UniProtKB/TrEMBL annotation:
Glycoprotein found in the keyword field: no
Record-given protein name: non-specific serine/threonine protein kinase
Binding site for ATP: 63
Entry's EC annotation: 2.7.11.1
InterPro entries: Kinase-like_dom_sf, NEK_Ser/Thr_kinase_NIMA, Prot_kinase_dom, Protein_kinase_ATP_BS, Ser/Thr_kinase_AS
Keywords: ATP-binding, Kinase, Nucleotide-binding, Serine/threonine-protein kinase, Transferase
Family: Belongs to the protein kinase superfamily. NEK Ser/Thr protein kinase family. NIMA subfamily.
Amino acid sequence: MHSGHQTRGAGRGVPPRRGAMEGSAWEAACRARGLVEVREIGRGSFGTATLVRAAGGDHFAMKVVSMDRMSTLQRAEAEEEAKLLASLTHPFIVRFVDSFSEDGHLAIVMEFAEGGNLHDRVLAHRAAKRPIDEVQIVRWFAQAALGLEHLHCRRILHRDLKSQNILVTGRGDVRIADFGIARVLDTASVEGDYTEELKENTTLGSPGYLSPEIYNDTLYSFASDVWALGCIVYQLAALRMPFEARSLPALALKVTRCRVPALPERCSKELQRLNQEMLSHDRARRPRA
């Protein structure tokens, strides 16, 4: 099964049939904000991603989702993504610019990462049969880990970390993006206790990056985000996913029962050890972000 396939919650709504900025009310709302469409940069079940130019000449990415085709839960998830992103300020998390609703659509305007994403880098290096330099891997990992630490310190589970959601800027730095199924855990109670994990009735996220406890118990925690980051590190080093299968049941079986494969021999012992710790089947043994 391809690791990019997603289960419920990873894609929300149906792509708008028209251009992202077409339609009188919608076009007027964009013009009022000084936004001019440059080109479409992505399309998926969530809607469209469009490169827009602001009045000052800066370029931003605008994610547009069709709210009128969504369920009540899907609308809430889309609105929560905008609120959550607006609350985050960190050098390695994509920067929120604006959000607005008009004509049955929700738009989230954010920083544009002109360098694509880490999945693009993996595909390019695999096609060229050229490994990614370990120094670069460690740099990207360190930046993503700092961004993830910021989320976890704010008691936020990302729940859909994958190489497609780690964007790359023109300077080569990374940004964690796509908070569509992120969840803020319960805050501290009077007694000082707080929720460290979240039990769901439905599996959320991208299959290739889900941890064993998600497949076994649909249990999400900070440790499951760390597992996903470990999968990304493995993907960067090996140019493939640590677990691959032709079906979701077969993939779940591999993730929950098979030993984690070692990184290529060219990788340092330190990176080998770190990746094994991040992909430990015992979530208590995984390092914290």
